[in-house]
Design goal:
There is one protein chain. The protein is α/β, with parallel strands linked by helices. The protein has one domain: Arginase, Chain A, CATH 3.40.800.20. Helices cover 36% and strands 10% of the residues. The chain has 11 helices and 8 strands. It has an 8-stranded parallel beta sheet with strand order 2-1-3-8-7-4-5-6, sandwiched between helices. Helix 7 packs parallel to helix 8 and helix 8 packs parallel to helix 9. It is globular and about 55 Å long. The relative contact order is 0.14. Pfam families: Hist_deacetyl. InterPro entries: AcuC, HDACs, His_deacetylse_dom, His_deacetylse_dom_sf, Ureohydrolase_dom_sf. Keywords: Acetoin catabolism.
Length: 391
């Protein structure tokens, strides 16, 4: 990588906190930063504080009524607003919710601004990636949709085409919904099948609205898909569609809840497979858009075993200095985990797996759900982008 890389972060981003017992604990962000610091990853990044998005910026994606509802819910968390998705079993209300959520949006937009204006080549906000939020409703732990606001900011400031790739185990439904009718934005999501996991969307047939056909690409994966299958699906589809779209900038969401130890889903990836995906997206950004890459976090609920290692790998790749998988986890970090949580942390930055896969060119196997799913996406999406679905 040539050029500087940036992390947008300050401690205020951990105020996005639904409270004790909620799966989306800000501890996962805190532990990631502590591990990245212990491995000297932060020394390779320009670290800047995050601004708070104002109502005008939020309003480029979210409705005024919804922004007002979030403010009310944050002022009085005991009064739910189910019409706006606030106070549900997933998305609790908490005091200061508007400010905390707007802070995350500000961080991702600052990352996008820095990349687009050439301050840095890559930028990341690991507290971001809240991809389920809709223009007028919260959903799936997500209040404001920071990737969507950042993409809209890029469009409003001169980007002609933006590609968004989402590797969270859950479908990136909110970002897709915002841009479903906009031919300037390609949304690509690899996720567990909507027949087995929230939010129940993201079939291969969701390809974009009238005038934007082909700009939504969905790759639903069968439960149990591990590194080899996931990477087979990724490489069979994602590089080709992104190349065909020719984006000016690549925005990615890196939920690491596809891991086998994640408690909320059913894929079986390892940290090694996740690291391979991050590296592939880094390389794709350099191939198609001069390295302009904005990376966010996302889901991930194995907050000790998985998230800190996965996102530390992500930050190291963003910085241009990948961590070798066999690297030992610093004892200082492991001791802190044991003291704070009475848990034994992983000893190495690897799960001991080789991130290998069989390329799609090796042949299609119609007897497997995975290959049928890959083929369905290729068959419906590739022609819309001027691609041949066959090899």
């Amino acid at each position: 990588m040539s050029g500087e890389a940036m992390l947008v972060f300050d401690d205020g981003l951990t105020a996005y906190d639904f409270g004790h017992g909620h799966p989306m604990s800000p501890v996962r962000v805190d532990l990631t930063l502590r591990l990245a610091r212990a491995l000297n990853v932060l020394d390779q990044l320009k670290v800047v504080p995050a601004p708070v998005a104002d109502d005008a910026l939020l309003g480029t994606v979210h409705t005024a009524d919804y922004i007002a509802a979030v403010k009310r819910a944050g002022d009085d968390p005991d009064v739910p607003d189910l019409a706006h998705g606030l106070g549900t079993d997933d998305t609790y209300c908490f005091r200061g919710m508007h400010e905390a959520s707007a802070h995350i949006v500000g961080a991702t937009v600052e990352a996008a601004r820095a990349v687009w204006q050439g301050d840095v080549v890559h930028a990341a906000n690991i507290a971001g990636g809240l991809h389920h939020a809709m223009p007028a409703a919260a959903s799936g732990f997500c209040v404001y949709n920071d990737p969507a606001v950042a993409i809209q900011w890029l469009l409003d400031h001169g980007a002609e085409r933006v590609a968004y790739v989402d590797v969270d185990v859950h479908h990136g439904d909110g970002v897709q919904a915002v841009f479903y009718h906009d031919p300037r934005v390609l949304t690509v999501s690899l996720h567990e099948s909507p027949t087995t996991l929230f939010p129940g969307t993201g079939t291969a047939g969701e390809t974009g609205g009238p005038g934007a056909e082909g700009t939504a690409v969905n790759i639903p994966l069968p439960p149990g898909t591990g590194d080899a299958g996931w990477l087979r699906a990724f490489h069979a589809i994602v590089p080709d569609v992104v190349r065909a779209f020719r984006p000016d900038v690549l925005v990615t969401q890196h939920g690491c809840d596809s891991h086998v130890e994640d408690p909320l889903a059913h894929l079986t990836k390892t940290v090694d497979g996740q690291r391979a995906a991050y590296a592939a997206l880094h390389d794709l950004a350099h191939e198609v858009c001069g390295g302009k890459w904005v990376a966010t976090g996302g889901g991930g609920y194995a907050i000790i075993e998985v998230v800190p290692r996965a996102w530390t790998h992500l930050l190291a790749i963003v910085a241009g200095h990948p961590i070798p998988p066999a690297t030992a986890v610093p004892e200082s970090w492991r001791e802190e985990v044991q003291i704070r949580f009475a848990r034994i942390a992983p000893a190495r930055m690897t799960d001991g797996r080789e991130a290998t896969y069989a390329d799609w060119s090796t042949g299609y196997n119609p007897d497997t759900w995975l290959d049928r799913s890959i083929k369905a996406t290729r068959d419906v999406s590739f022609p819309l982008l001027g691609l041949d679905p066959t090899y």
